[in-house]
Amino acid sequence: MEKKMKRRSYVRVVSFAAALAAVLVAASICGNVRASKYKRQITLSQQRALTELDGRLREIGTSLKKGVYSSTPPMLSGMASELSRETLAAKSSLSVLPLENTNLENTYKFLSQVGDFTETLNRKVASGESISDEERENLRSLITFCDALSGEVSNIRADMFDGSFSFSQKSGGLALTGEKTEYLAGDMEDAQQSLSDYPTLIYDGPFSDHIMSAQPKMTSGAKEISKENALDAAAAFLGCDKNEISFLSEESGNVPAYCFSHNNKTVAVTKSGGYVIYMLDSSFAGEAKLKTADALKKASEFLSSHGYADMKESYYSTSDGVCTVNYAYKKDGVIYYPDLIKVGVNLETGDIASFDAKGYIMNHTERNLSSDILSQADAQKSVSGLLTVLDSKRAVIPTKSKGEKDCWEFHCADKDGNEVLVYIDTKTGYEDDILLLLYSDGGILTK
User: Fold this and answer.
1) Rounded distance, CA 125 to CA 70, Å?
2) Closest CA to 269 of 210, 296, 229
3) Which of 168, 226, 436 is nearest to 315 (CA)?
4) Exposure winner among 12, 87, 176, 207, fewest CB in 10 A?
5) Residue 376 has pLDDT above 70, yes or no
6) CB-CB contact of 153 with 57 (8 Å)
7) pTM to 2 decimal places
8) Alpha-carbon distance 299 to 304, whole Å?
9) 53: which residues sit within 8 A by CB, 6+ positions away?
């Protein structure tokens, strides 16, 4: 009897021990899972911070470059405000990265002085004074430092995405995995050295960021059409029999539409008014056989054949075998940048790869522009003396508040051949915007 009791006790102890071990193993596994999840969250946060820092430095460089050519109070005031936001955001991104033991004094000093210096220039111009040659040279120095720092950070970010390193905390800093044995902190100190002498597509074209945030003008008050009528419009646009087209779905949002498919093409027709808002051909674009000039001609012919005769080609970009051309509405010598249409041409086949009329449908309307405006000659007086005017025309551009501004557009170049677009308000004579033109094998871009 006593032996049976001992045996039962032994079995009970073993069972409890096994159960306890199972609980501990399960707890350990759960703990490891939570720890792994937490590490992943930290890693993603740090990756986002590095990406954000890279982007902010690029924006700072662009704003500074525009600042060199600014000469009126509103433009400098806007840029000073932008730079203040951008430098604060860059500092915030830096603070998220695990760089506690890294000396970034020059980097923080640079970011602070960018904002301080541009604000000083803003106050000076607002009081009626002019920016001196020395101050413009200081701006150029800030640009040089910014480009150097931005390049270093871009290289670090590129390493992050091609797998050269991963974020993982170690006692000596943030370790790099793979064949490298360096630390991110070390790379950031290298980037910091760029400031050692410091005392800073699918391409939509300029003025297109606000397009889908407003209410559409062309469809407002237009008669709503049936799905059958939309099918007819899609067939006419594609040049095929409507029986060859399949209905896909309905789109909601600012511009409700019916969506159809034909072979590799998707086409959307607005429910109000029956306008084709976009078409996309998913066919693969192989090796380019067409020259850019041929693609531009095909895009223009396509627009004309679909009733868009008063469109002016502005900029283009080539990517993945497709040349995307941007057009703006033009009437009586005035170009209306908000009324934007994009046409993509397959450089292998010459077929139309895409059509996007969102900007046009959102913004196109009859405008009554005032004739009581500054002359082109008077407006040109507000263009920086550092620039030589190559060409000019009247243009309507959108504002960040979703309105529009009537401007004189001056196509300019500086002494080094850098090209700039300067927009002078036809009423006030102040700069409304400045864009930097970039020419490359891939097209003509702005920033």
Assistant:
1) 10
2) 229
3) 436
4) 12
5) yes
6) yes
7) 0.60
8) 9
9) 90, 93, 94, 97, 153
